[in-house]
# Entry
Amino acid sequence: MTFASAYLGLQRQGAELVRGSNRRLTFGGQGSVVVPAGGTVYSDPLPGRLAAQVDLVVSLYVTGAQGPTTGHGMAMQTSYAASGDHAAQEEATGWTDRISSWYWLDAVTVETSVEVGAVALLGDSITDGWASTQDENRRWPDYLSRRLQAAQTGGVKGVANEGISGNKVLADGAGEAALRRLDRDVLSHPGVETVVLFEGINDLKAHSGVTADDLIAGYREIVERVHAAGKCVVGATVMPFKGWSEYDDAGEAVRQAVNDWIRRGGEFDAVVDFDRITRSPYDPQRMLPFFDGGDHLHPNDKGMQAMADAVDLAALECDR
# Structure
């Protein structure tokens, strides 16, 4: 398929851009690029400076798109679609359709000084942000990003949210398994110093026969590959899910065994105990109601903030 034109600007509100901010992206000096099925392209660097936490708008005019489309299904953010080439315009006119997914775009890479690094969060729907408020940037990665920006010390400032709703460690389904997408979605990004591994709930609640040993073996492989790439890895415990439709004693037993290994196994460079932070003291298999987004699996905005607050920022600094 062909990206006939591509622009990057700053969001003012909705589909409207800040006047004078929309700039054309080029690819090898050309204004359009053809991407083969399964391929990846990078635009030429765009000179200039960006403030931290700014909302970017990437506008794409696509031709020749057929069949399944590469995208991120649950963006928790409103995007806009139009008929014809409106990529260069800064006014909202013409952007008539609202969508809640991101298509084609995988990442924006920002060049920083060598002292500034990033953390990549490898996760599922909880990291993706389900049950947080749409368009308000209240996923736990967003709260973590704001904490890192406000911190007076430390070199890790960037946060790459690599959560996919429904994702598993071991099996493909909602996206490729974490084991299969690790290189593409995490290790390929420049500047990543540390990886937070927060997956497993979809493996153990799926009634597929996955054991604690199976999950631990998957975690071990990810840790080994992250370490081999010269990066650190923080393990996050699996949160409680009693009350969710797939909850049962067998899945809970796997969760407890996995969490015990994450805490005591000694293979992670650090651990963040999301289970301890979010569980009810009166029913530890259940999420604290104050944090419950309503389905007993996904935290609300308050729960997302509590998760981000539980991360030791010093643990994200890697000296490997």
Q: What stands out?
A: The helical segments are 125-128, 140-150, 178-187, 201-204, 212-228, 249-264, 274-278, 301-310. The chain has a mean pLDDT of 95. The longest strand covers residues 2-13. The domain at 117-316 is CATH 3.40.50.1110 (Rossmann fold).
